[in-house]
Amino acid sequence: MTVEFPAFTHTILAAKKAKGISFADLETILGRDEVWIASLFYGQNSASPEEAQKIAEALGLGEEAIAALTSYPSKGLGPVVPTDPLIYRFYEIMQVYGYPMKEVIHEKFGDGIMSAIDFTLDIEKVEDPKGDRVKVTMNGKFLPYKKW
Amino acid sequence: MTVEFPAFTHTILAAKKAKGISFADLETILGRDEVWIASLFYGQNSASPEEAQKIAEALGLGEEAIAALTSYPSKGLGPVVPTDPLIYRFYEIMQVYGYPMKEVIHEKFGDGIMSAIDFTLDIEKVEDPKGDRVKVTMNGKFLPYKKW
Amino acid sequence: MTVEFPAFTHTILAAKKAKGISFADLETILGRDEVWIASLFYGQNSASPEEAQKIAEALGLGEEAIAALTSYPSKGLGPVVPTDPLIYRFYEIMQVYGYPMKEVIHEKFGDGIMSAIDFTLDIEKVEDPKGDRVKVTMNGKFLPYKKW
Amino acid sequence: MTVEFPAFTHTILAAKKAKGISFADLETILGRDEVWIASLFYGQNSASPEEAQKIAEALGLGEEAIAALTSYPSKGLGPVVPTDPLIYRFYEIMQVYGYPMKEVIHEKFGDGIMSAIDFTLDIEKVEDPKGDRVKVTMNGKFLPYKKW
Amino acid sequence: MTVEFPAFTHTILAAKKAKGISFADLETILGRDEVWIASLFYGQNSASPEEAQKIAEALGLGEEAIAALTSYPSKGLGPVVPTDPLIYRFYEIMQVYGYPMKEVIHEKFGDGIMSAIDFTLDIEKVEDPKGDRVKVTMNGKFLPYKKW
Amino acid sequence: MTVEFPAFTHTILAAKKAKGISFADLETILGRDEVWIASLFYGQNSASPEEAQKIAEALGLGEEAIAALTSYPSKGLGPVVPTDPLIYRFYEIMQVYGYPMKEVIHEKFGDGIMSAIDFTLDIEKVEDPKGDRVKVTMNGKFLPYKKW
Amino acid sequence: MTVEFPAFTHTILAAKKAKGISFADLETILGRDEVWIASLFYGQNSASPEEAQKIAEALGLGEEAIAALTSYPSKGLGPVVPTDPLIYRFYEIMQVYGYPMKEVIHEKFGDGIMSAIDFTLDIEKVEDPKGDRVKVTMNGKFLPYKKW
Amino acid sequence: MTVEFPAFTHTILAAKKAKGISFADLETILGRDEVWIASLFYGQNSASPEEAQKIAEALGLGEEAIAALTSYPSKGLGPVVPTDPLIYRFYEIMQVYGYPMKEVIHEKFGDGIMSAIDFTLDIEKVEDPKGDRVKVTMNGKFLPYKKW
Amino acid sequence: MTVEFPAFTHTILAAKKAKGISFADLETILGRDEVWIASLFYGQNSASPEEAQKIAEALGLGEEAIAALTSYPSKGLGPVVPTDPLIYRFYEIMQVYGYPMKEVIHEKFGDGIMSAIDFTLDIEKVEDPKGDRVKVTMNGKFLPYKKW
Amino acid sequence: MTVEFPAFTHTILAAKKAKGISFADLETILGRDEVWIASLFYGQNSASPEEAQKIAEALGLGEEAIAALTSYPSKGLGPVVPTDPLIYRFYEIMQVYGYPMKEVIHEKFGDGIMSAIDFTLDIEKVEDPKGDRVKVTMNGKFLPYKKW
């Protein structure tokens, strides 16, 4: 299934590739995490005008890019069940470990959820002689259910 | 939507509640992470006979519990799109950050995926005066696509 | 489609009916809003032991009710698209006014969402000679997207 | 998932952005609520020719805009289950609080529904030192089931 | 697909069959249309206590029947797309004639809908030498979209 | 969800609007019901060459229109569950009154269905001081199940 | 996916098996086609009291069987897309040859459909040295679209 | 729902219409059944170069047509559940008569299926004073399940 | 999602476990492949009376087991998209390698399919110091599309 | 359903056809399996720059092809349930033999899965006088569930 991305996503990824700039480079330029920057490129977060300006300069893009990077479009990218194997594994983790996580979070915090908005996500490469490992760290504010 | 769990899940969670034992206690008893133990209770992982024995003893359960904890039933718990707000947030993270993670992982590792099998998941409570935070650490082996 | 509710829901609604107690009465007894109390009955929120005790007493229910009212089961009740006309109208409102609300909320607050957890919901009957009206007031904390 | 909007929606939102006019400004110009106006822009409601004329003038648009604003196209915008986090929260509210609202509305009014047609929706920003809040007020006529 | 009906539906239909009473007979006894009565039996409408009493008497049923007939359960019966050929034809009519009806209703009434709540539905047998015909008359209040 | 109509539908509806001709006018010109004519415009029925000719003349359209009006394209217009409120109400009627209608039709006619092919559909505006009403009359041949 | 059949289906198929009676035998006893009889057993058609009597006698069943065989339950058996390979092939034929059949039927008959109600279906075994063949003959009345 | 066909399908059907050639004519020209030829036009079967040549000549088409007619594209045309009434009736037949056919085929042949590949399908018009009938004959090789 | 298996499957798997007999043992006893035997246990294939007898004896089961093993129930086990990680990988292989396989099979064989009925499937453990490997060999008859 | 492939897929398949080069030829040129090469063409795997260069040369394609062949786009091609008969058979195998394979793999290897990433897939034509056979060999690393 060809997943449809915002038109802007193709433009900015092509510019990044042409410039030979990595997300890690952009992390240095912008002072923001590479995953957050990648989420900007997919229209899932929005930059301040200053941030958008810096990105546009780094990638040689103009006003249209700044407009796109500072807007708040409809979020959520993939098909209902992702078919891309890399992304599906995160769906599988939710299917397999979702209720176990619910049990442990409730035991530690009580009734409530982990925010996906007041939230950060970090990816690290952990070198390992038996095969490198991907370390994903999610950090979200616990929101207790309000009673009224 | 009432999600259907394996019949055993209800039994073992009730026994754990009746005994007043937390997953953290079980972590100490078993020497295994509390999330992994919770996943055992939901039929998503399988214990060795010795591990099953220790859990059964701690919770006052018999042979049937050991049989259930050491078997490999069909995995994957929830509805296609979860309705429980705590679990839905992990689905939303996959919808919103899935492709950005794919970009960053490919940039760091090349073509391949993070394994969800050679994989660990840890949950920590990070105290914070502005509101405690949930920290979820996923650690999976990177599997490069084999060429042939 | 017969929607499946937690077994406890049927018990507690039957007890409430038998006692002839309204949600408004329970609001007075408990000092909590009637919608929140109704959400408790459907397993969508959880009470403190003291709150559960008061409800159990009012309805003549025992320990099992207290256990159910203080637990945190899987949330989310209906089919993917509700078929009940009263509930469907709220789905329709989301379909018809969802993006318009997104525009107005973003204009007033910037990028972020209205929390459905740090959230209250109130229902009032507004008498009107041309036909009484239902007034639903939702009040949720605005959560700005965190940058990192 | 890139949600498809009527072609006109993109045109009118771009014109509004270019003119630097907010929905609040349009509320003043038109004497109609900003949410209703936003719903017009998404083709979910229809204006009178006079109303369409005023909007077209304010945004510097011509006959085509008037034609679009006064027509009655197919309504309902999003995917079956919304993926945009802001809009999803309204879906979650329906999933979690739908049946509780049904209980309370039936208790207050008897068998029937809240109209989504003879209906208004208002959004307010409630300032709060612990974090501003979004207040959504829905007001719909109660329609009792007719017997025949 | 075996469609699941409320348990009560089976009981009351069996009682009606055992008594050899038709919906037309019940129409005479109750002074209400047979389709409305059939909708009561499927939990889609609710009777007053007096009406419930009359039906229970006619069918030799007790208090439980009266309780069921006067309650307001979750409505909407079938699968998303009905498989029963008789019911599917009404789905097909909506698929084939839905937009044409929308055009004609908008032309006659302006923007709005036909209410399915302030609504009656009547079925008649029209004898015809070339084959009898089913005449279904729907009559619903037109609800214009409210502006605010 | 922007519903996709046959390209021709847009052309002919635009021509009709430009000419200021109503479906009621076309009913007079053609001697066929306005709903049937609207269904022609949506590619759900097919005209004879003479009928197509008359319509093309009335709307100032050429050979291409005649070809489209006389062809038999794939039928069925909307999404599986319609999101347009006007059309959804007909889906809701099928969900709520489908099985009750099945009961009454079977009681009156025996095992069989109402044809949606040997079928007519008429819409009338019934003026009423308490609010005008939409009257929809469906008339289909009863088809008994053939035994063999 | 275990497909759910009407409870009666299991009873009558078990009785048939116990008696060692084939559908071909029942065809002789009843003077009706074996496919029609099999469809009776699955609640997809209904027998006259005399026919039901004959079947009940042949299979040693009582009043309950007669009641089931003469009733008109909800029809349509399988999941939306069948998983049973034998039945899936008929779904595949509809997917692959549906539009080609539509072309040929329209060319031969004009606009309309083949009735699935005024319809018979016959299955024959055609012996063939290269492998026996299944011959399915469907015969349905052509129903032209009525104009009005 | 506008069903999407391969681009080639529109071209070849238009050419056939322009030439005034029927599928029956093509049957004579090609010495192949008209349904098979229609399936070619929808990209569901593939012709030999000689067959493609004959069709291209008959319809005045060139190399591109020959390339399309001899290729093996992705098969299966319609939506999951067809909305076109003519095609839906074949889906309904599978829903209603699928399991009855399975019973009869298993009784006649044992465990296995009717092939949809080693398969022919023929459509005949059977004239009848009470209304002409469509006769569809399917003939597929029986494939017994291989044991190993 | 708890996948529902035929009731018999649970019985026979429990008997096999209690007897401590492996599928490899059954392969020796029956002279049939272990995968085929496992498919029997899940109601996906059917045994001859002699084969059923041997299995029943080996597992200490009676007439009911023989009846189940020799019957032809509805086939196809899992949810539409499997959630079990082991089974999902085969779904993923079909998603990722399906069209590439189609290309290669068409190039080698022409238009047609690999039979899933005249078909065998074998699983081997290939020991490997870098990690043992699962080798799955599928062998199905090529069926060319019949022309007619 | 016309399955959408990456735009590049059409270009490269057309170039391959125009050059008259088979996947078997490319296997020789590249020293990689033909299925792997076909999967490259569908954007399901990625080549090294040297491999991409060789393919581009063989097919007379330029820089754009090299860029496409070395990128890692979103994977997973078909609709949720494939409609193409050749590909559907692999879906059917997963539906019918999925759980039996799970049983046998667990018995041979313990709890874990066959990798679809550290994985090869080979297709062979096995000539047979009773009809040639397709032999598909899958070979994936067994990944045991990690405990932590």
Automatic annotation (TrEMBL), chains A, B, C, D, E, F, G, H, I, J:
Active site annotation, chain numbering: R89, E92, S115
EC supergroup of this enzyme: lyase
Catalytic activity: cyanate + hydrogencarbonate + 3 H(+) = NH4(+) + 2 CO2
Keyword Nucleus: no
Annotated SUPFAM superfamilies: Cyanase C-terminal domain, lambda repressor-like DNA-binding domains
Every Cyanate lyase C-terminal domain range: 76-148
Alphabetic keyword roster: Lyase
Family statement drawn from the similarity comment of this UniProt entry: Belongs to the cyanase family.
The encoding gene: cynS
Matches recorded under CDD domains: Cyanase_C, HTH_XRE
Originating organism: Pseudanabaena cinerea FACHB-1277
Species lineage: Bacteria, Bacillati, Cyanobacteriota, Cyanophyceae, Pseudanabaenales
Record-given protein name: Cyanate hydratase
EC number, UniProt record: 4.2.1.104
